[in-house]
Amino acid sequence: MIPEASYDVIVVGAGPAGSTSALYAAKNGASVLLLDKKREIGSPIQCAGFLPDASEVQALLRDARLPDTLKNYPDSCVLQRIDTQRLITPNCNIKEFAVRGTVLDRRRYDQFLAEQAARAGAELMIKTRVTEIEGTTIETSGIFGKHKIKAKTIIGADGPNSLVAKSKGLVLKPKSRETSVALEYQVRDVDIDSSALEMYFGKDFVPGGYAWIFPEGKDRANVGIGIRSGMAQKGISAKEYLHRFIRDHPLAGSKLKNSIIMNVIAGIIPVNGAPERTATENALVVGDAAGQIFATNGGGIPPAMIAGKIAGETAAEFAAGKCKLEEYDRRWRAQFGSALETSVQARQLMDGIMKSDTLMNAAFKLISPEQMKVMQCGKLPGPVRLGLQALNRGKK
Predict the structure, then answer these.
(1) What CATH number does domain 6-74+106-172+272-344 carry, 3.40.250.10, 3.50.50.60, 3.40.309.10, 3.30.70.20?
(2) Alpha-carbon distance 29 to 33, whole Å?
(3) What's the pLDDT at 379?
(4) Residue 333 carries which DSSP code?
(5) What is the value of pTM for the model shown?
(6) CA-to-CA distance for 2 and 169, rounded, in angstroms?
């Protein structure tokens, strides 16, 4: 495939954020090129892939306008339907609440999203890496050769180490930048509740984060941990923490004792929110590249796709001379920016508490299941904020 010499919009990265951006830019009349460095869209898998039902997302993010592809997707993209979320404290108390959603086959879902973008008119080039960005001209190298391509707008949907963000100065200041390391296994032959997500806490197993069991079918699951290296015990790797969880956790261990590891997934998750700017006069960033992840649980698919819709629509308007590209920044923040900021504040309040299992147990005692549910999407009820602040003061 030989690309055109120029496009209205070039999107770098064909994950949920990039494909949604490309879809909505193309639907709104822009010429679009969607690039991805991987040889197969959605592979290797990037995350555990839980997607709350659109009605749950809308109820918690009332101002957000959800893309159609977040509401409707083929059954072939679904590994398991979920109706319960369970949180397990360090002393093994359980709090649970009802939640509707699905554990996705991320490979199929990402391919579905990229296909929708292509059907809307975007050109798709896989196994193509962006090697340099100068102004609005990009240089690419890959299976289709080397090319120089010009655009009116570049959308960076190229993950937490985004080249677009770095080249355009759209990154968090170094002292504000923090990530969580995620390591997960797809396993078989496990004895789990196949309709429930389970999240486990405790400094001996997951310092500064949580471990999870996400069912992918009757005896299949994604088992993983997200930890912050700054809070881990010196000399203990993420792999050692995960193996300790699978082998020794008093509740999870018995469920996972016969697990057969079929796939290893690793990645990094930005957990400090979005930078001050996510757009310039000719480029913008979206999804992980823009830190659009709820820091309380690492959930990134809904905010990435909501922002992707805004990015594509704004880029198309900009290409038609109807608005400035910086309008994107105002628009996405109006729809879910406060929830994103609140999730970072909640995570920061929990940081000190997570260093002590006693404090963690006390924190979970004061938070009701209903409050836990709204905290997943960036809400921090007043009584919870006051309670966590009191626990933080008490530990000093």
Answers:
(1) 3.50.50.60
(2) 13
(3) 83
(4) I
(5) 0.94
(6) 30
